[in-house]
Amino acid sequence: MRIFFRLFIASLLLIGFSAAAQTTDIKLPGSSAFNFIVISDHGRNGYDNQKEVAVTMGDVASDVSARFIVTGGDNFQTAGVQSVQDPLWWFNHENIYTHPSLNVDWYPALGNHDHGGNIQAQIDYSNISRRWRMPSNYYTLVKTRNDVSIRLIILDTYSMVEGFGSPDDKYTLKAAQKQVHFVDSVLTVEKEDWVVVVGHHPVYSAHPTRHNTKELVQYLNPVLNRHDVDYFVGAHDHIFQHLKDPNSKIDYFVNTAGSEVRDTASNAMTQFTASAPGFSIVSATRTDLSMYFVNKEGKVLYKYTRVKPAAVPVN
Q1: For the chain, how many structural domains are there in total?
Q2: Is residue 13 part of a domain?
Q3: What is the DSSP string of 259-273?
Q4: pTM
């Protein structure tokens, strides 16, 4: 009897472990949703996981019918590009992201390493490439599919950080203020279903050496909160993070690196964190907006869904 009881308990434990394993198997979004990919900190001549991430990203983009790609900056490590003929365009980008599913529009942001080179060259490459779409160092666009609309605001956070933190002739306080005013003016009139703001530097971060970006916290974040932005997606830290400010409705994400990563970190605001090369998927319907963190093997490490509040009927 005692042996039977032990076997019975063991079988229950095995069932419990099996159920737990199933609950952690997160599926990719369906191809019928409005999906796009975010990659950042990726340009390393194919080394440090960049090629492996690119291959997986191509396969996943095909599976989920990704409509476009957004970058979170540091498109070219470690000092940007010098011109539209710079060989790094081939070795860092064109010869890396070769899967047919990645021949969609790319909407890049600039990172601190990009500012080490000629940022105008990244803008001008839009006139050469059929997929690189960067009209300015910061810009906004609306993407739609069926009855779902997404307002994207792509920022140049390095210019803001320098302009507010240590202004000089190149990065002026006036230019930083102008970019924040641009964000405010766009958000004042936007009417889309969802608003996603992307910038290289995160607003909040648990990374022990990067920390919160104080210039964004002080000058940009009040504007984002005033307009109830849905997602702010940063990069720069080379780890996945999802953070929540208890006094804000915004979900703050940090995308991992599409190449070399750092050690993970967490704090009181952390909802999830992981150190893994990869990329993110944003998936939208009329009623919900989901974020997926995907590693270089194509495994979903984390999924978060934001549900739109039901409309209050008018009497």
Answers
A1: 1
A2: no
A3: S--------TTEEEE
A4: 0.91
Q: Kindly list the distances between the CA atom of residue 172 and the CA atoms of 138, 213, 221, 278, in Å, as whole numbers in the listed order.
A: 15, 18, 19, 34
Are the C-beta atoms of 216 and 201 separated by less than 8 Å?
yes
Contact status, residue 131 vs residue 81, Cβ threshold 8 Å:
no
Q: Is 41 left (phi over 0), alpha (psi -120 to 50) or beta?
A: left
Residue with token string 């998927």: 281
Domain, as residue range, for 157: 29-307
Radius of gyration in angstroms for the set of CA atoms belonging to the chain, rounded to a whole number: 21
For residue 156, give the nearest of 72, 50, 276, 221 by alpha carbon.
72
CA nearest neighbour of 301 among 223, 239, 217, 227: 239
Could you tell me if residue 61 is inside a domain?
yes
The set of residues, in sequence order, having a beta carbon less than 8 Å from that of 81 and lying 6+ positions away, is 88, 89, 117, 118, 121, 122, 125
Cα gap 283→266, rounded to integer Å: 25
pLDDT tens readout for residues 158-172: 999 999 999 999 999
Give me the residues paired with residue 291 across strands. Answer: 282, 304
Q: For 202-252, how does the pLDDT look when each residue is reduced to its tens digit (9 = 90+)? A: 999 999 888 999 999 999 999 999 999 999 999 999 999 999 999 999 999
pLDDT at 312: 56
Task: Calculate helix-pair angle for 157-165, 173-189, nearest 10 degrees.
Answer: 130
Give the confidence band of 315 by pLDDT, cuts at 50, 70, 90.
low
CATH code, domain with 89: 3.60.21.10
Separation between Cα atoms, residue 293 and residue 273, nearest integer Å: 10
For residue 310, what pLDDT is reported? 74
What is the helix (H) or strand (E) element at residue 210, kind and residue range? none
